[in-house]
Structure formats: structure tokens, C-alpha cells
Design a protein that fits this description.
The protein is an alpha/beta fold and about 240 residues long. It has six helices and twelve strands. The protein has a seven-stranded mixed beta sheet, with helices on both faces. Strand 3, helix 3 and strand 4 form a beta-alpha-beta unit. The N and C termini lie far apart (about 45 Å).
């Protein structure tokens, strides 16, 4: 990883903001990811994120914390928050912005236990592909305190495959349609492509049940997205 995402966050934070991140996928063209958006406060967040922050309680893990916006909001509310990210630049910026407890760490290397685990901004992206979902969910389960909760958002991106007549052009022999190759570039440099997973609610629910978790939809967003709450299934 060249950590272009972290570089962009540092540029913005250090007032060297001249251009935005450019993202694309194997099924969609270039899209700008405005850097100010990555520093948004609560009032600028999508309703799903606001709802997740309202539901957060106890000892919180903020996974893929980016510039730390979610962590800072919860800290200000008096919650104990640990933030993790795999981007060095993001960790540095979040620290400078005042996130108290932050580590450069992959989710699979986390070992502490929490009352709330947040995975926001397409939290299922980190699972990378359908075949890895159960591994990640089983690990997340091991990080939950009794009565703990995972708050995660994603989208059903089937709509991205529709043609103008509403017909679908999904190749039924191909992998799951939510598995994307994700490309990021910044100031003329390209990041190594990443795997990024969008997971529809039904498949997330089935994957949860397979590892002894239950999944409940909290709300739908404005564009095929949803927020889910995952808890341990107690018989």
C-alpha cells in the first residue's frame, strides 16, 4: 500500500488541500471523493451514520476510523473509544485531531473486547469478498462483550448492474455481484487495487446466522443502503 488515502488526509489536515481523491471500480467510472467529506461533523453525516452513533454504547471499537470523525463525536459524548485503521496517515491525523486511543492495526489482529463495534462507510468493505465474510464475522463475535453489538452499514448494489430498461446484466457464472475491485488515485498516483465488498442484507443475515450471530435491520438509507445491528444469538 502506498497509503494515498492517508496522504490525502494529511494534506487536508495540514492545509495542503489542492485536489480530491479519485475512486473507481471495475463496474463504475471515476468518482471524486471530496477530502472535506472525510472530516465531516455529525450534522454532515448520512442518516445511517448518525443513527449508528446514537446507538453506540459502552466501550466502543471504531474500525477503519479514517480521520477519526466518528470516534471524536463519541468521545465528546463521554464514551470510551478505541479507533483502529490500517492507514498510517489516517492514524496520524486522527491522533492529531484528538482521538485518545488509536492504533495502526488490522481488524483481524484486534483482541480486546467491546460493547459496541462500529463498521461504517460500507463497513462490509473490509471483508473483501464473500468467501471471507464468515471468518471476519467469527472474529468480530470474539471481540464482543456479553450483550455487545456490531453496528455495520452496506448497500445492495444490484442497481449498478441495471440497464436503462431495468433489465439486469449480471453474469450468473461470475462471483457475487457485490464483490468489486476498488481503485484509488490521488495527485496523479495510483494505489494498488483493493478488493471491496458490498453485501446485501439477506446475505449478511445468513452469514451471521451461520456463526451464531443474529442480524437486525435498523433502518434503510436513501439509496439501497442500510444499517444493521448484529448481536450474539442466545438460545
Amino acid at each position: 500500500m502506498k497509503d494515498l488515502f492517508g496522504k490525502a488526509l494529511q494534506d487536508y489536515f495540514n492545509k495542503n488541500y489542492t485536489e480530491d481523491l479519485i475512486t473507481s471500480t471495475n463496474i463504475s467510472g471515476d468518482d471524486e471523493l471530496p477530502l472535506p467529506y472525510l472530516f465531516r461533523d455529525y450534522t454532515e453525516m448520512p442518516i445511517l451514520e448518525q443513527k449508528a452513533l446514537q446507538l453506540a454504547k459502552g466501550n466502543v471499537l471504531d474500525v477503519g476510523c479514517g480521520s477519526g470523525s466518528h470516534s471524536l463525536y463519541l468521545q465528546n459524548k463521554g464514551l470510551k473509544v478505541k479507533a483502529i485503521d490500517i492507514s498510517e496517515g489516517a492514524v496520524a491525523v486522527a491522533q492529531q485531531r484528538g482521538v485518545l486511543h488509536i492504533e495502526l492495526k488490522d481488524l483481524l489482529d484486534e483482541t480486546e473486547q467491546f460493547d459496541t463495534i462500529l463498521l461504517l462507510m460500507n463497513g462490509t468493505g473490509i471483508f473483501q469478498e464473500l468467501s471471507q465474510v464468515s471468518k471476519y464475522l467469527a472474529h468480530l463475535k470474539s471481540l464482543l462483550n456479553t450483550k455487545g453489538q456490531i453496528l455495520i452499514d452496506s448497500s445492495d448494489i444490484q442497481y449498478m448492474y441495471e440497464d436503462d430498461d431495468g433489465g439486469l446484466w449480471i453474469d450468473t457464472n461470475a462471483n457475487y455481484y457485490g464483490e468489486l475491485d476498488y481503485f484509488l488515485s490521488y495527485k496523479g498516483e495510483d494505489e494498488n487495487p483493493m478488493k471491496w465488498l458490498y453485501l446485501d442484507f439477506e446475505r449478511l443475515t445468513l452469514a451471521c446466522e451461520a456463526v451464531g450471530l443474529q442480524c437486525e435491520k435498523i433502518m434503510d438509507g436513501e439509496h439501497f443502503d442500510y444499517l444493521a445491528k448484529i448481536t450474539v444469538l442466545h438460545h
